[in-house]
Amino acid sequence: MVNGAWVCLLAPLAGFLAITLAGDRITRRQAGILSTASVFVGFAGAVVAFIDALSREPDDRAVTTTAWTWLAAGDFKVSIDLLVDPLSITMMLVVTGIGGLIVLYSNGYMEGEDEERRYFAYMSLFVFSMLMLVMGGNLLLLLVGWGLVGLASYLLIGFYHDRSSAIDAAKKAFVINTIGDAAMALALFLAIAKVGSLDYSTVFDAAQSGELSDTVVTLLALGLLAGAVAKSAQIPLHTWLPDAMEGPTPVSALIHAATMVTAGVYLICRTHLIFQAAPDIQHLAAVLGLITLLVAGGIALVQWDIKRVIAYSTMSQIGYMFVGAGIGAYPFAMFHLVTHAFFKALLFLAAGLVIHHLDGEQDIRKMGGLAKSMPYTRWTFLIGSLSLAGIPIFAGFWSKDAIISSTLAYGGALGWILYVGALLGTLLTGLYTFRLYFRVFHGEPSELVTAHTHGEHSDEGARSMLLPVGVLALGATFVGFLAIPGVWEPFEKWLEPVVPPLVQATTAQDWFSSLISVALASLGIFVAWRAFQARRELVPDGFARTALEHKLWFDELYDVAVSRPAQLVAMRLRDRIEVPVVQGGLDEVAEGAVRGAAATASVQSGLLRTYALAFTVAVAVLTLVFLVVR
Amino acid sequence: MMGPGIPWYLAISSILFSIGVAGVLLRRSPLIVLLSLEIMLNAANLSFVGFSRLFGEMDGQIFALAVMAVAAAEVCVGLGLIVAMARRRLALDVDTLTELRG
After folding, report:
1. A607 touches chain B (CB under 8 A)
2. Which of A215, A474, A432, A224 has the alpha carbon at shortest distance from A313?
3. Which of A137, A148, A314, A354 lies in disulfide reach of A83, CB 3.0 to 4.6 Å?
4. Is the predicted pLDDT of residue A546 greater than 90, yes or no?
5. Alpha-carbon gap, residue A76 to B10, rounded angstroms
6. B positions 29-88 inside 8 Å of A (CB)
7. Chain A residue with the nearest C-alpha to that of B100
């Protein structure tokens, strides 16, 4: 179990190092193969750990292994620990399995790009960082992984570094993520100060036993939540995710849909004992998730960029996971994370096929009627869309409805608000998903599409691209059967020892909410179809549309509230302090040094005998002084 | 103790050292300056050996040997420089060699 986990963690790191150190001694294709192989070796390690865990008793599946003590200061010690338990194994399988498929897809997608080797090195680095995050056996290693995935995300968003928009997006993502990282670091400092340890069990025990004051626990949970919110692009720290679509499409699929952005959900599940000790903060997580899922779903209705629509739907779906984690339905939040990883990666990769086919065009107004020329892409995209909208038998249905029925079971005012909001979300999901699908694949082929269609069965992409899409489509269809409420629930049983759920919906509640949500999603699809046929937009012109097109002015607000004042302060500091004091002071120091040097230089006459005389006199004087003073 | 006492050795040593200093300060030929330096080094050696004998320990003598080795190395370098100067027909006068003036 432990060996498998180590292989899983270190294989992508080895891939990253090998590609980096080999430089241009390997070809681009070899770099791609190396990276793909490293991630799949990691997947094999994860599978070994998984099988080993299955062969053990359910209560005996959590293993912590310590490699060495990393840093020690007095009583405070942090070790390189790996924690292998059902929760981390689930994440390992998702990260390396779906990550491997996406890296394989990249081999075809990035063919012919400049600097492919750099791309594959970053991809391996990302997979390693993400594994570090989920396998780290204490809060500090979690934070290390947390920071590293932020770095890898920054590097990959800014991969097209000759595009200024990509650089801006990368910086934005990094800065906003850093806010979350800083909040998490503060929470960790608090834990060190009050608990004296960063081990999961010690901190959890302290939070549960009541030896910490309520304020401390609340602040601790709040810091962790801020980190989760920033990484998972939830309101109010969500503005970076749509811009992150500047990166290559497989990067969006891997980092900004399937794995990294779900790290916040993982964090809440992992530290759920802290959150349970601070129920207000846990409810805050659910409320933020609800707001995000509605707002992002609304914005997705008016976006024109194929990737941005999917990006907003990612935010929206992570909102569902936050709702689930916020009411204590941890296994379902994790389950939605897993199914979402499948269908969202599928949607992104299928969108990548479209973008690849149309030579980089991402505007859906220029698309249409692709169903004929790209049948494979169309069917897989349809599977992804149905799964996303939560139509039965597809994976998204099982996971999303489990969360929705849990909110119903949770009850109370909060439960009802969440329930209604989540149901409204399913309507929005059906609308925006199928607006996108119909726009891209149905209707008459647009000019652009006709120009790119050659013959009846045009080439949809390399085999390395089609294969991962097919596998993900199978996953997006069948993974949902891992948790059928009341019938067969291996997924919940698997996670239960680590994250026992706080709420459990009854069968009646399951049926009730499923019926409503499927009806709403179907209504959304139907409305989207009617609107498409009538060539109408879903959101009519007016205030609502303007507001959604401006993404509710979050960017503008942050610009006025944070960015401009910061720039103003920086300018003032430059004019008042930097130039006159720091720079001026340095100039004076330099001039003084020059003057002093000139004065000293004149002593150097170059006459040997003068020097000798100076020595002699000095020694004589020193000797005399020595004798006299003694 | 046999022979003259330590004051004699020290007296001779200081006389030699003063002669060396005077040579370095007053003469302008690099060859003579080098020679005077050797005299100073050997004046120091004489005190070393004298004290060594006074205290009955070998340290001073070892030091004297080390100083000789250093002196030999120094003569090699110094003479090499002087020969090089002579080859280039530079004036053998330390007062004219002032190129390192600041």
Report:
1. yes
2. A432
3. A137
4. no
5. 65
6. 33
7. A606
The mean pLDDT of chain B is 90
Residue with tokens 């599940």: A269
Average pLDDT over residues A435-440: 91
Q: How confident is the model at residue B11 (pLDDT cuts 50, 70, 90)?
A: very high
CA dist., res. A335 & res. A356, Å (int)? 31
Kindly give, in sequence order, each residue whose CB lies less than 8 Å from that of residue A291, ignoring residues fewer than 6 positions away.
Answer: A235, A319
Q: Residue A287 domain-assigned? A: no
Residue A218 to residue A279: CA distance in whole angstroms: 8
Using the Cβ of B100 and the Cβ atoms of chain A, whether some distance falls under 8 Å is answered with yes
Which of A603, A607, A613 is closest, CB to CB, to B98?
A: A607
Tell me the per-residue pLDDT of A460-506, one tens digit each, with 9 for 90 and over. 788 888 999 999 999 999 988 888 877 788 888 888 888 888 888 88
Residue A50 lies in a domain: no
Integer Cα distance of B35 and A520 in angstroms: 109
C-alpha angle A178-A184-A187 in degrees, rounded to nearest 5: 145
Asked if the Cβ–Cβ distance from B24 to A604 is below 8 Å, we say no
For chain A, say whether B24 makes contact (Cβ under 8 Å).
yes
The pair of structure tokens assigned to A392 is 């039965």
pTM of the model: 0.79
**In A, which residues are within 8 Å of B36 by CB distance?**
none
Note whether B101 contacts A600, CB cutoff 8 Å. Answer: no
Using the beta-carbon criterion (under 8 Å), do B24 and A600 form an inter-chain contact? no
Give me the mean pLDDT over the A65-84 stretch: 86
- Parent domain of A493: 292-303+320-542
Q: Mind listing the pLDDT tens digit for each residue in A240-261? A: 998 889 889 999 998 888 889 9
High-pLDDT (> 70) share of chain A, %: 99
Q: Is B90 on the interface with A (CB under 8 A)?
A: no
Q: CA–CA separation, A492 vs A330, rounded Å?
A: 9
Residues of B in contact with A613 (CB under 8 A): 25
The CATH code of domain B29-92 reads: 1.10.287.3510
Q: Residue A117: name the closest of A44, A40, A34 by CA.
A: A34
Question: Which residues of chain B are within 8 Å of residue A605 when distances are taken between CB atoms?
Answer: 98, 101-102
Angle between helices A28-54 and A2-22 (to 10 degrees): 170
Q: What is the mean pLDDT of chain A?
A: 89
Taking only the tens place, the pLDDT of each residue in B29-50 is: 999 999 999 999 999 999 999 9
pLDDT attached to residue A149: 93
* Contact between B101 and A613 using a beta-carbon 8 Å cutoff: no
Inspect the interface and report whether the beta carbons of A604 and B102 lie closer than 8 Å: yes
Judge whether A76 lies within some domain.
Answer: no
What's the domain count of chain A? Answer: 1
CB atoms B101 and A603 under 8 Å: no
pLDDT in tens, A497-542: 888 888 888 888 888 889 999 999 999 999 999 988 888 887 888 8
Chain A with chain B: Cβ pairs closer than 8 A: 33
Q: Which of B25, B97, B101 has the CB atom closest to A613's CB atom?
A: B25
**Is A594 at the interface with chain B, CB within 8 A?**
no
Contacts of B24 in chain A (CB under 8 A): 609, 612
Predicted confidence (pLDDT) at residue A213 exceeds the cutoff of 90: no
